[in-house]
Amino acid sequence: MDVATWASYPAAGDRLLSFIGIETHWAILQYVLGLPFMAFIALLLYLRSHDEDWMRLARTLAKGFIIVFAVGAATGTASEFGLVLLWPNLTEAAGRYIYFPLYMEIFAFMMEVVFIYMLWYGWKRLPPKALAFVAFLGFLGAWYSATMIISVNSYMVAPTGIMPAYKPDGTYLYDQGYPKIAVYMPKDIVALLDVPKLQAAGVEVLGDAGDSVIVAIPVKVVQQLVREAWTGVALKDSILVKGGFVNAEAAKQLTMEQVHALAEKLGLPGAMLAGAKSPVEALLAVPVKNVLDYILMTTVDHVGFMSVTFKSPVFPASIAHTIGSALTVAGFTAMAGYAMRLLRMPSNADPGYRRYVEKAFKFAAVFAAIAIVYQGFISGHELGVAIAHWNPEKLAAMEGTSEHVFSFSRALHLEKIMALIAYGSADAELPSYDKIPSDYCKCSLTGTPPVDDCRPPIMLHYVYYTKIGLAILIGLYGALMALVALRDRWGFANSLLNALGLRERYPKTLLRLALAAAVAAQVVSTLGWVVREVGRKPWTIYGVMTVDIARSFNPPTTGQLALVSLYFIVLLAALVYAVYRFLWLPGKPSRHM
Questions:
Q1: What's 304's DSSP letter?
Q2: Half-sphere exposure of 453 (CA within 13 A, CB side)
Q3: Percentage of residues in the chain with pLDDT exceeding 90?
Q4: Whole-number Å distance between alpha carbons of 244 and 589
Q5: In contact, 178 and 164? CB cutoff 8 Å
Q6: pTM higher than 0.85 for the full model?
Q7: If residue 132 lies in a helix (H) or strand (E), which one and from where to where?
Q8: Residue 82: which of 475, 556, 589 has the closest Cα?
Q9: 286 pLDDT higher than 80
């Protein structure tokens, strides 16, 4: 599958506009997550040493934080409006079933606003320990906000209760109805269903939960029920009836009083069923959406409305990797800024200013090196393991395991290494892309499939390996810059740099590359989001809702796409100017902070 095939998925324009908005917001948001943490560390160093250079560095980082937060709030607001307008059915579902973290995001934003401006306006009014505490609360608020949003995104990537269709011994379970999703089915609904027929269709009974039965339903059935729910289908026209899954004998035994009692649980007004001539006719008039809502609300009640998104199996690794990405980008950007200061440092510069810039550069270089090591070897590894276990189709696309395309992992003989990383055993097998049924998300009982091919696009392999290649390069560069920063302390570092021909205290060749490394860090982060988001297509919520159902029925025109894109470009330009005007210029040696 190539780019053209990806574009042929439903809502290509909507997805492109959402990508522009969200990625613009994320490019800024990384600094909101990273800079206050760096400022907090600098304040701790000041409290330890009482060196005013650390206080100056902390204030510079805090100033950058405030600038990007202001623009980030604008892009975030625009992105949220875009999500509501472009994906109204997704928004409705989120507001009904996974609203808690989105609601708590309001308080996270308030926390950010309060402590950000307390930090800035209280800088010369609060004692250093109080400043450090406010900075701690500032980055905690930003991380708290990210945690809420990433929990929802993680649920979209791998919803709570997902049961994948692959085992690392190479066994696929598609013929057994997998992937499946576990839900809590109310017993008064179960009583009306033909359980043997459901089991023959792949539905699996997992246990009893008192008022409900825990069942695993194939995602192809789930997505079809969701499709019917959001297109206004009644039970009489649903796959539940057409597929023979409703127990006709049990339905005939119902009285009108029982139907009305069930309708009350389903949230239906009694007047809606008043004209029905029989209990069966009344039952068949019930909208699928009300039945599905009853099942989902029962599931959320059992799982916990406050914890349902946080129980996504990919959430812990996702939030760790998100924060790691932010710290990496912020670290490399700060290092680039101070590297440029060193390059432009006049020979007769004030010694105090030179000492400050050198100290800030060393701090940023070491911070960036630590961040990228954490990102690559810890959080990146954990996220890769999570993807391997819960999104095997995505992993197959990422690793390019199709025999019909050029594969970097195959050409470089990395399959065993990647299997060891993903599954903890070199004897494990990566999922074969070619063996994934192209129709695994299609329900055979309907003639309106959402897409021609349910597999994520194979182009992800090239996006992913471009990301990995760039990450390795900036990781090596970060390691070199950390050695440069520590050469005065570590004789080993100095000897190694001299052996590489880098004898200057601050090699100009490496300093000139700092800006490119900062841009590359942003590119790596962007490509990571592409892999994460495109990798679950054609799903909006993996195994639950496809993009054609989540989208608006009034998609934007090309002109509207261009106009909104221009808005985000203007915001980015404003941010660049603000950083230059209020952060770069005041930091010159001829000016004061």
A1: -
A2: 16
A3: 66
A4: 79
A5: yes
A6: yes
A7: helix 128-157
A8: 556
A9: yes
